[in-house]
């Protein structure tokens, strides 16, 4: 080593922080020759990396974590543990910084998740957009008083959603998330515009069907997209934005529907407005998938530089395990572990629908009228606000309590709420007390649904699915969802008229209780685990079982 100069005596604290300029203890330093000279302190140990910000707030650097440090995957933890240790001298210190006491690791991914959640906003908007104006639409288009045709206009978009969900898995495997999002906006925009200018039953029905196609694709795509782009630590919270977007869409449609009581043509304006989020979604998609170099850049920008090598290694391990071709066929859903995940996904959505959530949402005004609230706008608004409040609670709880606990607690709360309504309606109580208990039970039902059954169901299925079959499994699960959704929407009103509210709500409570038991035995906790880790863990479990 050639020594070319002897520098001043400097304080090591000054060297570490670049704040204090007064020497405290003389320490000799030397500089090395070469194109990139280094300052060397032969008498001092290397200081731990830390510094102070411009306002005196201490910033801390996240410690480098090897793949298996917190993940219980022994085969990965021992494979490259030595090569993953941090070397300060080689400047492999993690660059991601966060202010102490203020965790902002989710912030980089939030804009992407927000744009994707516009699809859920549209879903919620189209759920509620027909709640009030359907009477005006029926009167203007000539099918007033025909409950079957009214129910068809309300529910026809679910038929389109079924077909969209069924096709989404294949489309996203071929084109990727961004292109699929943009393609799905075409029927969303056209359907809203056709419905808005409709002058016949056929036109409004066709427009609603086109909207359903786009909704079906997006409801499958959004959970996949968020689960893949969100950092592992925040995947649950960011995934809850789907439910929040749906709630905001419902509330927005209810507020915008208020003038329809006095303006019989206001429904056209509401449907024109529905095309605007579609344009925003089409222009906002900027995340490209499928190329390794781009993936590295995206992970660095969205997850932080510390996660790049770890994420790429996990992804390559999955490719090595599954094969380089990530396209899959529907027949792979018949093989383990895909068949088990597909069964869990389909069962969760079927049970969710027969637990009654969309029956309550679609016909909330009729339900509340039976228990004393005659204003349909007030009843629907109460449900929307309650749903939104529950989703906000889920945003905080889902990454702290875990998916399984929220799912079980949510369905137990829904069962208790439904049984409370049945008790209030069926037993001889004071009329005012009966109404109050019924309202309380209904509000509790919506709130507990929004805490777990709503956000967790759509989130946990892509978490459990393999990279290779994720699109197909989600498409199958949501197809089951839309079939049951359509059946509930079509027959709920007739069942209430023939049997009454109490027997129908009692059935909803029984299904909710059954779903809580199902979640306890079949759901695997995915909190804090990367998608690749979950996939490799499930695959290794089934291979070990086969042996």
TrEMBL record:
PROSITE patterns: MFS, SUGAR_TRANSPORT_2. The keyword Ribosomal protein does not apply. Residues 112-527 form the Major facilitator superfamily (MFS) profile domain. GO terms for cellular component: membrane. It is a multi-pass membrane protein. One of its GO terms (molecular function) is hexose transmembrane transporter activity. The chain crosses the membrane at residues 148-169, 181-200, 206-226, 238-258, 270-290, 341-364, 376-398, 405-425, 437-461, 473-493, 505-524. It is found in: Membrane. Keywords: Membrane, Transmembrane, Transmembrane helix, Transport. It comes from the Eukaryota. This is Major facilitator superfamily (MFS) profile domain-containing protein. It comes from Malus baccata. The lineage of its organism: Eukaryota, Viridiplantae, Streptophyta, Embryophyta, Tracheophyta.
């Amino acid at each position: 080593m050639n020594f070319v100069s002897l520098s001043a005596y400097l304080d090591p604290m000054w060297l570490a922080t670049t704040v204090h300029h007064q020497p405290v203890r003389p320490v000799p330093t030397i500089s090395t020759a070469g194109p990139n000279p280094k300052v060397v302190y032969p008498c001092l140990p290397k200081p731990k990396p830390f510094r102070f910000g411009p306002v005196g707030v201490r910033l801390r650097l996240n410690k480098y974590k090897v793949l298996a440090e917190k993940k219980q995957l022994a085969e990965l933890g021992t494979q490259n543990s030595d090569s993953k240790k941090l070397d300060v001298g080689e400047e492999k210190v993690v660059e991601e910084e966060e202010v102490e006491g203020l965790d902002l690791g989710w912030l980089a991914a939030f804009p992407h998740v927000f744009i994707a959640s516009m699809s859920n906003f549209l879903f919620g908007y189209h759920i509620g957009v027909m709640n009030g104006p359907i009477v005006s639409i029926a009167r203007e288009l000539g099918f007033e008083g025909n409950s079957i045709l009214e129910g068809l206009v309300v529910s026809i978009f679910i038929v389109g959603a079924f077909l969209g969900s069924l096709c989404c898995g294949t489309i996203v495997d071929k084109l990727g998330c961004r292109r699929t999002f943009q393609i799905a906006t075409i029927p969303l925009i056209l359907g809203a515009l056709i419905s808005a200018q409709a002058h016949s039953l056929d036109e409004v029905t066709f427009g609603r069907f086109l909207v359903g196609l786009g909704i079906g694709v997006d409801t499958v795509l959004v959970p996949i997209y968020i689960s893949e782009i969100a950092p592992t630590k925040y995947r649950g919270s960011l995934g809850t934005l789907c439910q929040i977007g749906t709630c905001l869409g419902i509330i927005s449609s209810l507020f915008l529907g208020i003038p329809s009581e006095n303006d019989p043509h206001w429904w056209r304006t509401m449907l024109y407005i529905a095309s605007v989020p579609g344009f925003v979604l089409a222009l906002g998609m900027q995340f490209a998938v499928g190329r390794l170099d781009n993936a590295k850049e995206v992970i660095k920008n969205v997850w932080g530089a510390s996660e790049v090598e770890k994420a790429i290694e996990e992804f390559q391990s999955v490719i090595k395990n599954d094969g380089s071709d990530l396209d899959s066929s529907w027949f792979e859903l018949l093989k383990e572990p895909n068949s088990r995940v597909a069964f869990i996904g389909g069962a969760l959505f079927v049970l969710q629908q027969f637990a009654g959530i969309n029956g309550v949402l679609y016909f909330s005004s009729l339900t509340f009228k039976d228990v004393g609230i005659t204003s349909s706008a007030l009843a629907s608004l109460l449900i929307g606000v309650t749903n939104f409040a529950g989703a906000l609670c889920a945003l905080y709880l889902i990454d702290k309590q875990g998916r399984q606990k929220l799912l079980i607690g949510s369905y137990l709360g829904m069962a208790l709420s439904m049984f409370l309504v049945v008790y209030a309606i069926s037993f001889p109580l004071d009329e005012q007390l009966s109404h109050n208990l019924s309202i309380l039970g209904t509000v509790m039902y919506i709130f507990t649904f929004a805490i777990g059954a709503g956000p967790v169901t759509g989130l946990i299925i892509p978490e459990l699915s393999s990279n290779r079959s994720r699109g197909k499994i989600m498409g199958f699960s949501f197809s089951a969802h839309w079939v049951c959704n359509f059946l509930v929407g079509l027959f709920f009103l007739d069942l209430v008229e023939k049997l009454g509210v109490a027997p129908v709500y009692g059935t909803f409570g029984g299904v909710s209780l059954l779903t809580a038991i199902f979640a306890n035995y079949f759901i695997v906790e995915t909190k804090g685990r990367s998608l690749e880790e979950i996939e490799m863990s499930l695959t290794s479990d089934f291979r070990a079982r086969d042996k």
